Amino acid sequence: MGLSEGSTLVTLALIIIYFVVLLGIGVWASKKIKNSEDYMLAGRSLGFWLFTLLIVCSICSGMTLVGTSGFGYASGWPGIWEQIFVPLAAAFCIIFFGSKLNKIGREKGCMTLEDYFALRYENNKELRALSALASIAVSLVYLVGQYTAISIVLIWVFGLEHWQALLISGIIITAYTVIGGLYAVSWTGLVQGLILIFGVLLVSPFILSYAGGIEHINTVLASIDPNLVMPAFPNAYAAYAYCTPEFLFSFGILLIIGLACAPHVMSNVFAAKKISYFKWAPLVAFGIYLVIMLLVKISGMGVRVMAEEGKLDAIAATNAPDFALMYGIQAAAPGIFITGLFAVIVLSAVMSTTDRLMLTVGTEFSWNIFKTMLRPNASERQVVRISQICVLIAAVISLILAINPPEMLAFLIWLGIGLMLCSFAVPLIAGLYWRRATAAGAIASMAVGLIASIGFGYYYQFVEKLPMHFSIYALALAIIAMVVVSLLTQKNSDAALEETYTGPYLHPKELSK
């Protein structure tokens, strides 16, 4: 496996140009960073388009290209609901969390989800530490997916072994993150996200045209299995036929709410310059991401048709669907420049998300656990050093776990989102909208949700398949834990409830007038 010599040289040249430009942007933007608020939230100065695109780009990563296209390759149209649910997650986050958290952040100096939890639930240690541990667990799962995606691209471009690709990518990204990746993460992430968005718009038409168009794609898919062109599979009669109506119901909850609660997505709402942005940003974010996701998913279906008709070489990898888009563009691209550009698009998108996740692991442990729980008197230098060590440890753990990836990268994505849903959704939504939710209830909910999701996930993967996504069962237990424990414990003070705008309304009351 590997590209031709000409394509490889073009790809290398484009990668070098890309990183030179990225470094220049980082150096320029780093001069604007004077304190932690500037670094974490760009000084709360994101304009409408920058904020909206960052929401989209926080959800959309290289796994969107690799995992989503692989899902389309394997399951056809029944999996198309993902392309509605995921864009809705961006809208859900802005609508239900946006204006309240943005205003709380400005008034109380909150910069992270853990800062909000500490303020709302009047618990600065136990809940903060538990939330940080959950964030670390989620980030590690996502990192496994990111490194797997990078490995897939490097295998395709250079013909490497899987372990070689993992080792190379791990060294490059870890060095970039520890040494130079702390500069202007939001700006470089935005640029890389834009490359991904416009890259999809560029390469997808080549694949769809080479596959014969939508009508021909549907005809061939129906000849393989008539249910590949239906809204859902009637039952789980095959490994690819898990998108039954009941699974899709749970899938919607998983993606819409779970992704909206992701810490790296949530941080963007603290950074918006004006609360008025939350009026139109949901619609704009939904529209942009919907187009991108639909193109990627249908392109995966097109590659399945190309493979069926012998228009491309057989994909020999065990996780063949994840290579679908790469093989498709290699067969359909009019020249080596487009092929090389596509490789850069995927690598840049995945690497941007990867360094952000590694920084999340370092920040969560160094600030919310080491500084708050273990060494309150630690110096800033000690905190930074612990963060760097955690980045290295996160890289090692995620690389080891990525050695044996699942058959489809999409399953890793859903596992990470499931952990987010069960850990953060209940304490966050209850904290914002239910005045009776207590700190004990939030701790119980988060602990039960995280432990139950791991248990149900193990059962689903190694014992017996469940009719719905495993996270839904854990979510139900997390809701029960929140309600029961909150009703049995003393509610938080009225002062905490008022200053965090807790109640059944979307916007702080003075903003609704």
TrEMBL record:
<feature type="transmembrane region" description="Helical">
    <location>
        <begin position="190"/>
        <end position="211"/>
    </location>
</feature>
<protein>
    <submittedName>
        <fullName>Sodium:solute symporter family protein</fullName>
    </submittedName>
</protein>
<keyword id="KW-0812">Transmembrane</keyword>
<comment type="similarity">
    <text>Belongs to the sodium:solute symporter (SSF) (TC 2.A.21) family.</text>
</comment>
<feature type="transmembrane region" description="Helical">
    <location>
        <begin position="409"/>
        <end position="434"/>
    </location>
</feature>
<keyword id="KW-1133">Transmembrane helix</keyword>
<feature type="transmembrane region" description="Helical">
    <location>
        <begin position="6"/>
        <end position="28"/>
    </location>
</feature>
<feature type="transmembrane region" description="Helical">
    <location>
        <begin position="283"/>
        <end position="307"/>
    </location>
</feature>
<feature type="transmembrane region" description="Helical">
    <location>
        <begin position="130"/>
        <end position="157"/>
    </location>
</feature>
<keyword id="KW-0472">Membrane</keyword>
<keyword id="KW-0769">Symport</keyword>
<feature type="transmembrane region" description="Helical">
    <location>
        <begin position="327"/>
        <end position="350"/>
    </location>
</feature>
<feature type="transmembrane region" description="Helical">
    <location>
        <begin position="466"/>
        <end position="488"/>
    </location>
</feature>
<feature type="transmembrane region" description="Helical">
    <location>
        <begin position="163"/>
        <end position="183"/>
    </location>
</feature>
<keyword id="KW-1003">Cell membrane</keyword>
<dbReference type="InterPro" id="IPR038377">
    <property type="entry name" value="Na/Glc_symporter_sf"/>
</dbReference>
<feature type="transmembrane region" description="Helical">
    <location>
        <begin position="48"/>
        <end position="74"/>
    </location>
</feature>
<keyword id="KW-0915">Sodium</keyword>
<feature type="transmembrane region" description="Helical">
    <location>
        <begin position="80"/>
        <end position="98"/>
    </location>
</feature>
<keyword id="KW-0739">Sodium transport</keyword>
<dbReference type="Pfam" id="PF00474">
    <property type="entry name" value="SSF"/>
</dbReference>
<dbReference type="InterPro" id="IPR050277">
    <property type="entry name" value="Sodium:Solute_Symporter"/>
</dbReference>
<dbReference type="InterPro" id="IPR001734">
    <property type="entry name" value="Na/solute_symporter"/>
</dbReference>
<feature type="transmembrane region" description="Helical">
    <location>
        <begin position="383"/>
        <end position="403"/>
    </location>
</feature>
<feature type="transmembrane region" description="Helical">
    <location>
        <begin position="247"/>
        <end position="271"/>
    </location>
</feature>
<keyword id="KW-0406">Ion transport</keyword>
<keyword id="KW-0813">Transport</keyword>
<feature type="transmembrane region" description="Helical">
    <location>
        <begin position="441"/>
        <end position="460"/>
    </location>
</feature>
